[in-house]
Design goal:
There is one protein chain. This protein is of the alpha+beta class and 293 residues long. The protein has three domains: 99 residues, Orthogonal Bundle (Arc Repressor Mutant, subunit A), CATH 1.10.10.10; 84 residues, SH3 type barrels, CATH 2.30.30; 79 residues, Alpha-Beta Plaits. It has eleven helices and eleven strands. A hairpin with a 5-residue loop joins strand 9 and strand 10. The longest helix has 17 residues. It starts with a helix and ends with a helix.
């Protein structure tokens, strides 16, 4: 979650500067509700490759650069903005080459297709949700033909190009695909904002929230093992064993069957569920239903 916040903040700062506007460390600190020290680091370290001019306490971009960066490139940067923190040895020339994104560049960043928040209906929805989240105000809404009442909204989360609302429905923390919410209205009733809930949302690797996760053990065929060794493709993935034939035994912790089943199906026939057996049986039934359709 921290990476998402960083991405959105830096992309927003870049958009402001490339539009020709000037701003200050203090103004950015207040806008993003973070410390001036953090914003100073954004400017001097994370965005040091930009030709930012500092004069009379204001930050602005070199006039020759203004307007050269379009929305797509800013989104691409948002997808990789954590790259300097992950790889401190990368120099400004490398980042500038990535940012160029022209036919002469050796790099091409392909990010997720994001939901268009410029859509008037979606924009109005987000403004309404943002206001209730900020005020810590309960809301009512319809979601997939079900009426939800006195829901406590905590965060709007961007995950893989889609936006979700993290909220407490009773005592259960749930996620709702934001664009599928309808008839959202504030109740005027405030609720107690629990920092433990917010920390749980921020610390979670996914949009699936549960204190009772279960373990799934899978076998990965050697033909695709390298993909799973390079990065974690399963939720909370851990390597249990590398077999003599190159196959992998991995464990994954999930909150719901739906969190992992699409991944298993995507990588078939190179993945096999070892446990729990009920999940393996669920996959087999799904395959049989498809063949019989």
């Amino acid at each position: 979650m921290a990476d998402i916040k960083l991405a959105e903040r830096l992309a927003n700062i870049m958009g402001t500067l490339y539009s020709g506007e000037s701003t200050t460390i203090k103004a950015l600190s207040e806008k993003f509700n973070t410390s001036e020290r953090t914003i100073h680091r954004d400017i001097t370290e994370r965005l040091s490759f930009l030709p930012i001019i500092k004069t009379d306490g204001k930050l602005l971009l070199d006039s020759q650069t203004i307007g050269q960066l379009n929305k797509k490139i800013i989104q691409n940067f948002a997808a990789i903005c954590g790259i300097r923190d992950l790889f401190p040895s990368l120099d400004d020339a490398f980042l500038q080459s990535i940012m160029a994104q022209n036919q002469d560049s050796a790099y091409l960043v392909k990010s997720h297709k994001y939901e268009d928040l410029a859509d008037p209906i979606l924009k109005q929805l987000f403004l309404k949700l943002e206001k209730s989240i900020t005020k810590k105000e309960k809301i009512h809404f319809y979601y997939k033909a079900k009426d939800y009442q006195n829901v406590k909204p905590y965060k709007l989360i961007s995950s893989k190009g889609l936006w979700y609302l993290a909220a407490l429905d009773g005592n259960k923390l749930k996620t709702f695909h934001a664009s599928q919410l309808s008839s959202v209205w504030p109740t005027g009733k405030l609720f107690e904002h629990k920092h433990a809930i917010e920390r749980h949302i921020e610390d979670s690797e996914s949009i699936w929230f549960s204190d009772k996760k279960f373990e799934v053990t899978v076998q990965v065929n050697s033909e695709v093992a390298s993909y799973f060794l390079r990065r974690s493709l399963l939720p909370e993935q851990e390597l249990i064993k590398t077999c003599d034939d190159g196959n992998l035994i991995l464990s994954s912790k999930v909150a719901d069957d739906k969190q992992i089943l699409p991944l298993i199906k995507y990588w078939m026939p190179y993945l096999k569920i070892i446990s729990p057996s009920r999940l393996d049986e669920k996959v087999k039934i799904s395959i049989q239903n498809y063949l019989n359709w």
